[in-house]
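seq as requested:
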Amino acid sequence: MSAFKLDPLTRIEEDLILDAALEILEKTGVFVQTEKALNLLRDAGCEIDGNLVKIKRGLTERCFKSAPDYIEIYNRDGEHAMSLGGENVYYGPGVTCPYVFDPYTGERKEATKQFVKDVATVADALPEIDYLMSLCLVSDVTPLHADLQEVHALLSTSPKPIVTWAFNAKNLKGIVEMFHAVSGGSKQFAEKPFAVVYNEPVSPLTHPTDAMEKLLLLAEHGVPSIYSTGMKMGVSSPATLAGTLALGLADSFVGLVISQLVKEGTPIVLGASGGPLDMRTMNSTYSNPEMSMLESAASQIYRRLGIPSFGLAGATDGKSMCLQESADVTIQCLISTLSRSNLVHDFGMTDTGMTGSIDMMVFCAELAAISKFISKGIEVNEETLALDVIHNVGPGGMFLSEKHTYRNFKSSFFFPEYVPRITYDKWVERGEKTTKDLIREKTLKILKEHQPVAISAGKKELLDSILEQYAKSEDEMK
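struct tokens:
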């Protein structure tokens, strides 16, 4: 069976863009602002002038080969959950929204730690959501350690794998301590990692101390990491897709090279995310086709290199679940799936990444199911061609009563959960519930009835003690 796939670049275009990225590293160079990273690059033969580093093509190409093609990710309880790489696609929520839509009232408010627990509970119940992110930036806990609080809430609530972030290297150490506490030690976590940590440079071509310190720490501990750009076309990258893609690849390759210089085989996921600054409003935007085009092309090149890719879907500039939001997230989910981006994040991000919505995450889970259904392609064999059935029914006949129909309709048809496929009269009779209403009911039903497998009391106590240590250090700073 041939699956539906999207590869936007020809082989010649791949070569040109990849060559351009390598030339940027070798001729233009990048700023690296951490002495330890500079020493690693210097020892590897890079040309260094102050903080400007020029990375030789051969070094980058060697690092392509040493990075793992696949990264095996487990859940909190040690069960295999994801194989990042190749053509595998996995979906999860977003992160860093300072505001959220309250899942019970719909009110827009500042994010809380309880919201993270609600996100984890709903995501745990949805089979299309493969991993957890907080979908917010919590504000009702110690502000210097909100990132630790988010990880604490996710690990305490659901056994699904997590993708998270850290404010700085100091907090990241605490987060890694949490990983080790849950696994039973650093060795056990390295053998069965259940978390991936996001990190990013500053476009264009700047790799600040904060990003480098986190990258080095993750590599030293063998924690799978993401190194992905966040470019704004026409501002921090060229106003063209090809130029932006080349620049984004170059910046991501810096993270790859340094991680491999720490230790060959260090697990890393790369991304080259970007989109235009709207020149009419001077606002950043998620509601744009350019971002999906960039990530689709980047996924194609990373797959060629044998490097797991970071993708995006389920994000919108819209403020409520109406036509704009539906169009944005549908296009993103389908393109990310057909492009085979390995780790697709941002389900539930609305309001240009400012407001997290669990309802939107639920909707995106359905879109993920539809997208995967489409991507499977059309199975062609004796059973699916159904020639005997067609001959038997003949002209003007009916297939409804055929055994072949009964055998195949459940696997051949997609049945949406939130789209009323009934007549107008029946729809009115059933309360005129829209897709938005049905999603709202689903969210509330999960929050009321679903009970994820909680973490053991002993591990929860260890997580609590790590949080207390960091809260104490914050109090001492005041």
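The domain at 64-375 is CATH 3.20.20.480 (TIM Barrel).
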